[in-house]
Amino acid sequence: MTKRFSPTVRRRRLASEMRRYREAAGLTLEQAARHLDSSHSRLSRIETSQVGIRPPDLRVLLELYEVPPDAREVMITLCRESRQRGWWHGYGNAVPEWFQFYVGLESEAAGLAIYESQFIHGLLQTEQYARAVLHAAVNPLPPNELERKVQLRMDRQTLLTENGLRMRVVLDEAVLRRPIGGPATLRNQLQHLLEVTDLPNVSLQVLPLAAGASVLNSFTIIDFPDPADQAVIFVESLTGALYLEKPEEIRDYTLKFDYLRAEARDPAQSTQTIAELVKELT
Fold first, then answer.
1. Cα radius of gyration (the chain)
2. What is the pTM of this model?
3. In this model, does residue 4 exceed pLDDT 80?
C-alpha cells in the first residue's frame, strides 16, 4: 500500500496546533502578531492554513507560547513538511489553485462520503467520460491541458486500488441517465461502475428519481485517519469551491448524507439498477 505525501494535511494540522498553543498561552492574535512583528491578518491566515509560516517565525511563536522543547521539534518538523511540494504539482496548471487544497486532503484521507447530483465522481470516472466532462467546461480547454487533467484524474484513482481509500457514494439516478459523451461513453462508464463496486472499500447507492425532495448540490465529506485532523466538507461550484470545517457544518452535512443513504436504494439494488441501464444502452 502506497501512501502519498500531502503537505496540505501537514499545514492544516500545524495551523490547528498553533492556534491551540496560542489560546493556551492566553494570547490574542494581535498580541502574538505584535511579538512576531507581523500583522493580525497574516497570523490569522496562518492559523486557518491559508498561508504557511517559515520555521524561524514559528520558533519565535513557540517560545512565546512556552511550548515544551519536544513538542517544539514536532511542530518544526510539521512546518518543514508543510512547505514541501505536493505530488500533484507535476501536473502544472492542470490543477487550479482552488482545487489543490482538495487534492491534498484527498491524498491522505481515510474515507470519503460523497453525494453527486451532476456527474459520476472523478475517482470513479473512465478516461472517455472524464474527457467528455472536461470538454463540456464553460471555458474550452486547450487539448494538451485537457489531457493533463484527464491523466491527473486517472492518477488520483490509485487511491482506491492501492491505498484502500474508503468511499461511500450516493449517486442521483439522473447522473446515471445523463448521456455525457454519448450512449457508448455512458455505457462504458456504467460498466466501469459495476466493476468498481466489487472493491471492498467502495459502497455505491443510487438515489431514485422519485426522491426529488432530497436533491441538493453535490458535496464530499473528507475524513482522516488521525483524530487530530478534523473532517472537511468540500462543496464545488462553477469557478471554485467551499471548504467547510465548523463542527455544526460537519454535523449538518453528515446528517444529510445519512438521510440520503436511507432514501437511496441499497448497494445490491443499486448494482441491479446500473446493470439494467447498461442493458438499455446495449
1. 21
2. 0.84
3. no
